[in-house]
Design goal:
It is a single chain. This protein is of the alpha+beta class. The protein has three domains: about 1-185, no CATH class; about 195-260, Single alpha-helices involved in coiled-coils or other helix-helix interfaces, CATH 1.20.5.1930; about 265-400, Heat Shock Protein 90. It is built from eleven helices and five strands. A five-stranded mixed beta sheet has the order 1-2-3-5-4. Helix 9 links the parallel strand 1 (about 285) and strand 2. Helix 1 packs antiparallel against helix 2 (about 50-70) and helix 3 (about 85-100) runs antiparallel to helix 4. The two termini are about 35 Å apart.
Amino acid sequence: MRRLRFSRKVVVSSFFLVSVMIVSLGGLYVVSSAGDDTSPGVLGPLGVGPRWSAVIALMVTVALAWLTLRLVGSRLDRPPARPDAVLYGSFGLLLALFAVMDATTWSLMIAALWWSIAALVTTRRRIAGFTLVLVALLAVRLAFLPAPDALLVAVVAGYTCFLAVLFLVCNLAVLWLWEIAREATLAREARARLAVSEERLRFARDMHDLLGHSLSGIAVKSELAARLAERDPGRAAVEMAEVQRIAREALREVRTAVSGYRNVDLADELASVRSVLTAAGVHTTVTGGHAALPEELRPLAAWIAREGATNVLRHSSARRCDITLAEQDRACVVEVYNDGVRPGRAAVFGNGLTGLSERTATVGGTLSAAGTDDGGFLLRAVFPVRGDASPRQGAEAKEVAT
C-alpha cells in the first residue's frame, strides 16, 4: 500500500503539470496581449478593452485548469460527484477561451492539453463531438483571416493536433502503469485474504471432524443415562463412564490438533517469510539455515523469524532484510535485520516481542531488539547450547519452545 500511495502521487503530479501548463499558457497570453490595442475576441464589440479581455482570459484559464485536474479523478480512485457536469463545464470554458483569445496559438495549445485529458475519461462518441466542434470553430476563424495569417494558423493547428496525440499517448502510459500497480496491490491483498480464509476453513473442517462425532455420541449416551437413572442406576453409571471416556478422547484429539497447528517447521517458515517479504518489495537473504540450530530450538527460531518479518511489514519502510542463523561459541544466534527503521521510532516490546522474550527466557536465552547505527533495526536471540544436555532436557526444551 505504501508503494500504491506513492504511485498515485506520481500520477496526480504528472496530471497536475498539465494544469500548470494550461495556466502558464494563459499567463503568456496576458503578457503578449498587454500592449495590444486591438480588441480581442468577442469582447471588443462589447466595449471591453484588451487588458480586461486578457484578465478575463486568465481567470477562465485557471478555472479550466482546475476542472481539467478534476477530470483525472474519473480514472483514479476519487471520481468527482458529477463527472458529466465537470466534463461539459470544462468544454464550455474552452469554448469561452476560443472566443476571448480569438483562436490564437495559445488557445490551440490549451485545447490540445484539454483534449488529451478529456479523451481518457469520456466515450469515443463524446470526444468525437468535441473534436468536431473545435474544428468547426477553427474553420470559421480561418475563413475570416487573410490568406497568409490563415496559412500560419492552419500550420499551428496541425502541429497542436500532433501534440494532442502525443500528450494522449503519454497520459495513457502513466495511467496504464498506475492501473497495473493498483491491480497488483489489490491482487496481493486478495491472495492474502484468500490464504487466511482457506486456513480458517481447514481448521473449521478439522474441528468439525474431530468434535462432531464425539459430541454426538456424548449427547446420545448422556440422554440414555438420564432415562436409565431411575430404573437402572447401574446401567446409567456405565453409560456416564462411557460419556467420560468419549469426552477425554475428544479432548486429547483437540489438543493434538492444536499442537499440530502451533508447531511450525523452521525451513517452511523461512521459505514463507522470504516469499512474503519479496512480494512486499523487500530483498530478503537467509544465511545459515535450519541445520545450524538444534532440533529443539528450531520451532522457537521459526517464531522469531515470523515475528521479525511481521514487524518489517508493519513498522518499517525496509528495502532489505537479512535473516541469519548461526552457532557461535556454544550458543545459537538468530538475527533478523532490516534497513528501514523509521526515524525517531524507539523499540517498543509489544505483545509479539514480549511473548518471544518470555519463550526465549524459558530455554535460557536472551532476546534483544534495538536500532543500529546505520539506520537499521536488529532483532537478535541468543540460545545457549549445552553439550551435556540429556534427551529428557532436550524434549522439555522442545516442548517449552513449542
